[in-house]
Amino acid sequence: MSYDFTAVRAAMQRYVDQDLLAGVSYAVLEGRATVDEACIGWADKEREVALRPDHVFRAFSNTKLATSSAVLLLHEEGKFDLEDPVELYLPQLRKLRVLKREAQSIDDTEPAKGPITIRHLMTHTSGLSYGLFDPGTLLFDAYNERKVRNADTPLSDMIERLAELPLRFHPGTAWEYSVATDVLGRLVEVVSGQKFDAFLKARIFDRLGMKDTAFTLPESEHHRLVAYYSGADLLDPMKPGLTRLEASPYPGANLKPFARLSGGGGLVSTLPDMVALVRSLLPDGETLLKPQTIRRAMTNQLPAGMNIRFTNWGEMHGKGHGLAGSVTLAPSDFDPGATVGEFQWGGVAGTHWWISPGDGLSCVVMAQRAMAFWHPFYFELKKLVRQATRRQK
Description:
single chain, alpha+beta, Beta-lactamase, 2 domains, 8-stranded antiparallel beta sheet, two-stranded antiparallel sheet, 10 helices
């Protein structure tokens, strides 16, 4: 069946025309079939390079879908159980301590009541933090002072630094977005005996034909990396104005090899490659993981009453978390276009994906604006995609 996505394209063009986005690419799938695909705006606004399907985007936290899939591949092989304490494989993470609720210093701690399990890492309930979203807190300062996210050091160094720092809360008792998925990248290395990038390439990217997804772009392909921009006002995502960012997230990122292979946010990818990854998790065809594994990944793993939360937005009622992304448990004003059971995540630059078992729709969206995760453009796109498909069913 053919659908009319004119309204979707017009809305995305409006965001470009209003200087809210430089460009945006998206693909909509019904079942495993692509029913619409578009590249709107610029890969490089200043040089007027029109966006094409082969342009490369900073995936940022879209990387987490690949990392979680790698962990689940090893789980399917019986390498570990999701309830295993991660200290069985990363012994540095045993005997951890937790920051006391009213702590005045980073050393004001108590023993953790239990270990971090692999499931805790996959659901961001480990007690780890990120050092990104909560400036002014003890853990934010500690993570940055001790360079937990240091691109010049390997994943093994990150584990050593985390072992010296307390957790935000006792494992399993709360939700906080964190470096947990980077810890999972190191778990993959230890369990598989391969470097993380080699495992991803051999077991996922080559198998799915994801030829442009990597931690580092070859020099001959640097021209395909889209320019990166920040908005005019972090607190007002709809204020027009874009500023080009030349060295973000750090100088040379993705253009030359760095020691840190970040499973939480280090990949670059293209729209077709991300579509291939999402399609590999859809029924009625060959899948990367076993169907029962995919169902578990797309099922809420959080205890009853626990929702995901971010510092800027607070608790997001109706949003749980599976083994690789959020799960919509109930409709909400925050994400009005989402359906119950929808599985989704995205990256800080405005790259997103969603899989909706309820209506058989999936989507991949690629943008290049800093702090555009769950930006208004994404919610409008989702709403208009559903309107276009509903009208003709």
